[in-house]
Amino acid sequence: MRQPPRPELSRRLLLSGCAAAGVAGLGPVARGASGPRRIRFSHVVSEDTPKGLAALRLQALVAQRSGGRMAVEVYPDAQLYGDDDEFEALRTGAVDLLAPSLSKFGRVGFPEFEVFDLPFLFDNLDEVRRVTQGGFGRRLLDGLHRQGLVGLGFFDNGFKHMSADRPLREVSDFRGLRLRVQSSRVIAAQMRALGARPVPLPFSATREALAQGIVQGTENPLSNFWTQGMHEVQPHLSLTRHGYLGYAVITSERFWSRLPGADQRLLRTALDEAIDFGNRITQTQHDKALASLRAWGRTTIHEPTMAQRASLARAVEPVYAELGRSIGPAWIQDVRRAIRA
Ligand code: LMR
Question: Is the pLDDT of residue 273 over 60?
Answer without folding.
Answer: yes
